[in-house]
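Weekly structure sync - notes
Attendees: PM, LS, DV (DV joined late)
Agenda: review two folding runs queued last week.

Item 1: First target. Sequence and structure tokens pasted below for the record.
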Amino acid sequence: MYRVLIVDDEEPVLDSYEFMLKSTGSFILAGKARTGYDALKLIYESPPDLVFMDINIPGMDGLAVIAEVHKKFASMIFILSTAYERFDLAQRAIPLGVFEYLVKPVSKKTFFAALEKVRKHLDARNPESKQEPDSEAGIQRYLRKTIWKAVSPEEWEQYRERFAFPSDKGIVCLLELGGDAEEWGNTIMEKLSLRYHCRYDFSTNQGICLILGDIDREELEAQVEKVLRETLSGKEYASGIGGLYYGSDLYQSCGEALTDLHRKRNGDGGDGGAQNREQQRIKMLRRKTGIAPPEETAKLFGDLWKDVFSSQDFPAAKAKMTAVFMFLMDDCTGCYRDHPEVLPPFNAAEEIMALPDLAAWEAWAASAFEHIQRQANLRRSGSFPLPLVKAIEYIHDHYAESIQLPNAAGAAQVSAAYLSRLFSEHLKTNFIDYVTELRIGQAEKLIRESRMNIKEVAFAVGYQDPNYFSKIFKKITGVSPRTFGARVE
């Protein structure tokens, strides 16, 4: 089934399109948005196959949204709708590859005719989708693609009915076998199916299995290990088991299973969540140093090195922080990348590796990072175009509001397209990611320093939906806001 996002600022239109979609056998609703900014968030979070896009929506208009995402999602299909048939809008739509142009009010006949054209186009592009909805090929397509994405409860109900899933809950298991998975996969699944209700798909040396029901994870892990050991005696294998989730959140079980598989395959006790959090902290630190207030970047730097030294032995942690300082020095001076003739401000590797203990590290790091900040302020204040500086100042002043790219562009007195290019060229990111990372950084600070609950923190940093805030927070930091708060306490 193909996923559809509806974007319109009129509630009756949203309800009408949603109602008509439910009567089709090939399309399901992926979400609804009333503004251009909301549409961007939904598209980047979980890309749909088709978008019904109203042109005249608050914030970014429909064509601006399409222009923003067209390069990244070139295969996404857009159907435009507007109350007036205007040649100038059609001209703007042509270079963006818009599939259809509908004039409101859109009749049922026109709506279904447009859907049928899209279905034929998508079927031609995805031959496997022509299989019967409840066929084995349909389940394989679900396990290979859809289960890895966040879906709405309504979408999950449609998948559950389509594939006759017996439960609202499930656990994802990933398998990696030394030989051809198809040779052993059926035998493994037959044994597991004696105890559990399984849906599975194997290709080459890998397999994914969805085990449905209210299952005990530890018991399942033991059973999977037993079946693999008995079936693959003497052969190499690895398995990853996710957590138990409701169907609409099974993508989280996929992520956990993948992390567990990597950990077992590599034979270590590594924490995938901690690695992700560490990676995100380094990215945020590199982007913010020289831009954000010094106390904010100093706190981010402190959190990073404390995580590193608490999860590694002292020599390994020093080596990792040496790499961090090399990145930061290159960011603020260009000494390794842009200007090889420029000498680094200090020899990070030599000085860090000579530090005898944690107390010596803390004293050295505070002074060295302050030096880095001064260098970054000098470099970035002189190298950033004035419009970008103005936009950054605007974002830091208004991140708690529903700011959009055109708002920041207006404050900088440039076009949204030009400002978007400045973000890409100078900050190596886009507007949405920059605002998101700023908000999550502020949220961490509020959770750490205030008595606000999660809902209040979400509102304070610009998120009106606490559930969406929690999802983004976990994606950036590796843990949920509640878990982060418990660690702080």
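Item 2: Second target, run right after the first with the same settings.
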Amino acid sequence: MKKLSLSLFLFCLMAAAATAQTNLEKNAAFTGAKATQKKYHAIYQLDNNDPKVIEKTLRNLNNALTDPRLEGKIEIELIAFAGGTEAYLKGSKYENDLKALAEKGVIIAQCNNTLRERKISRDQLYDFIAVVPSGNGELIIRQAEGWAIVKP
């Protein structure tokens, strides 16, 4: 009986090791999800004025735009509110990056509630920035439409 238990234990141990090796090989061979849909939609939320967060957000956007699985299949919006608004103010160091995204078809939008609350006039923003009634409303509507919400 003890020999049978030991044999069964060793068999189970070897099976587990073989399964683990197979899983490791599967993992190493994985190349990412397949983009099988005709169109993808993502809205990026920018509500922080920390330069590291803004730069990460812009980098993430560009990474999505250059992902070969998504090329020609993705629509992206960048919505700024609260502290994120500072990236859109004339004179910010992000003008060229934002303009380049807009030229690639990214919707660059600003929350009007934030403008009102912070007493920022429309002409203080870059002229290529769109203004929407509220950033939260934009996120809610886009999510209901099936858009992925990304908050870097």
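Discussion on item 2: The chain has two domains: 1-30, 40-150.
Action: LS to circulate a short write-up before next sync.
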